[in-house]
């Protein structure tokens, strides 16, 4: 794990950035992802994998720095913020570069882009942070976060006339984000129900199933309540 001399100022930096975001991407989300990532990392080490716990913790803390959904024109990139911060705190330059690279590649959007290379396929630390972030996007917290973000973007919670875009492509995802359309329930069909099958680590896969099942049950109940078939 990270030493206090880097962890404490990193936490303060993240808290400052997350204070400008809505509750779906606040400090509490980041802390859950950090704790989940460390849990997965410990599980992976017990399975014999080589894992840099310090890189995992710092990358998990910084995983939403520079999130494109909140970026404004002229804002520094996540990479710039992270490397500047870690450089000022004399963090190992090789590890700093790895942290920045993980943050740049952790998102669902980047995975949709379909960029394949050896590093993305084999970096254990990347896979751990990706799985931790996905786990917080599904299940009970995932349901609340989806509603919170829809409220922040002033999107409907449920539109019975809307057809979800199943198997959404990168281009469709980008276009939807730019147009600020799509109700919360469509988001389950377009993204959240897909995350279970995108998990990378054994422990991530195991934890995802229960959370996935909870979301399926929730959406079924939304549709049942709307149809008034109870």
Automatic annotation (TrEMBL):
It holds the Pfam family HD. Residues 22-147 form the HD/PDEase domain. SMART domains: HDc. It comes from the Eukaryota. This is HD/PDEase domain-containing protein.
